[in-house]
C-alpha cells in the first residue's frame, strides 16, 4: 500500500462524491469533524496557485506604494502655493480633433491609461474563471458572496445618507463599492503584515469579483450618448483580436493597433472606453497550445501598476482644500456617504456575509485563523481608490464641487479603513509569522513546502 502523507485525511466510509470539488479549493476545503466531512474556510490551496498569487501580489504591492506616493504628491501640489500649475497641467487638452479625441490630460488618464488597468483586470478575470478559484463553484462561493455583499452594502449605506439629504448626491451611489487591491496591499507592506497566503488569495479573488461588478456598473449606469453602431464596431475588432490570439498571434505590432482601434470605437460608442480593455482581456486564451493570457498579463501588469494607475491617481487625487470650508465639505452627504460606505458598509457586507455563510453551511475557519482575521480583512476591503475616484468623476464631472467632496470622502474613508485594519491585523502579526514559517518549511528539500504536499494515490 502506498504511503499516506501525514497531513492527509483518513479514509471515510460515508464520504460523498459531491465533496470532491472541495479538495483543491483555495478557500473552502474538506475537514474531518465528528466522523463526517464538512467545509473549511480560508485554506491555503495548492502550491502552483500560491506561487502565482505571490508573484502577482508582489507587483501589485510595489505598484500600491507608487500609487500612495502619487496620491500624496498630488494632494501636496494641489494645496501648495503653486496649485494653479497642477490645475493647468490637469486641464491641459491634447489629442487629435478630427477623431474627437482632444481631451484633457486628466481625461486621458481616466479613459486611456486606465484602459490598460482594465485590460489586466480582464486577463485576471479570464484566468480566475478558466483556471483559477472561480472555476470551482464551491471555492468561488465565499469570495463571490462576500464581494457581492461588499458592493451592495456600501451602496445602500451611501444611498440611505444621500436620500435623506436630497439633491444630486444619489448619482454617486456606486462610489464606495470598489476595493483597491493595490492600495490595500501597499498598506500591508507599510505595516509589515505577514498576512497568510489563504487570506491574501481571498482578498485577491474578492477584489477581482469586486472589479467585475464595478465594470458592469460603469458600463450600464455611467455611459453617456450611447451609439450601437460604434459599440458593434468595437466588439467586432475585439473579436478579431481574440481570433488572432487564439491562433497564437502574439506580435505587439499586430495586436496593439487592434487594441487601440477597439478602444477608440468603444470611446465613440458612449460606453466608458475602459470597457474595451476588459473585453480584450476576456478573449485572450488562458489554456491550450496558444495560451497567451499569462504572458500578456506578465508584461502589462508592471506598466499598469507602476505607471498607468499612479498617473491616474496623480491627476484624480489632487483635491484642493486651501481656501475652502473643510467643515462644509465634511458635512456634505456625498462625503459622509462615501466615508460611511467604505468604513461601515464594506465591513458589514464582507464580514457579515462570510460569517452568515459559515453559520448556514456549518463551515469552519481554518484552524490557524480566527474571525478577527476576517474582520481585519473586511476593514482592508474598505480601501477604495482607483475605481471609486473614477466613478466619482463619471457621476459628478471632473473638477466639480461634488467631485472634490468625493475625493475627500474616498481619501478619508480609505485612510480610516487602513488605520483600523492595521490595528486589527497588526495584533495578529505574531501568529501570521508562525503560519508563514510553516508555509515555507521544506524539510525534504524538494522545492515544494511540506504543507502543500498532497497524499499519494492509495
Automatic annotation (TrEMBL):
Keywords per UniProt: Antiport, Cell membrane, Ion transport, Membrane, Sodium, Sodium transport, Transmembrane, Transmembrane helix, Transport
Protein known as: Na(+)/H(+) antiporter NhaA
Transmembrane segments: 62-80, 105-125, 137-161, 173-195, 202-222, 228-244, 304-327, 333-357, 369-396, 408-426
Catalytic activity: Na(+)(in) + 2 H(+)(out) = Na(+)(out) + 2 H(+)(in)
Compositionally biased intervals (Acidic residues): 438-447
NCBIfam families per the UniProt record, alphabetical: NhaA
Pfam families per UniProt: Na_H_antiport_1
Family label: Belongs to the NhaA Na(+)/H(+) (TC 2.A.33) antiporter family.
Coiled coil stretches, renumbered: none
The protein's role, per its UniProt record: Na(+)/H(+) antiporter that extrudes sodium in exchange for external protons.
Main localization, broad class: membrane
Entry keyword RNA-binding: no
Gene responsible for this protein: nhaA
Region (Disordered): 438-458
Membrane-related topology note: Multi-pass membrane protein
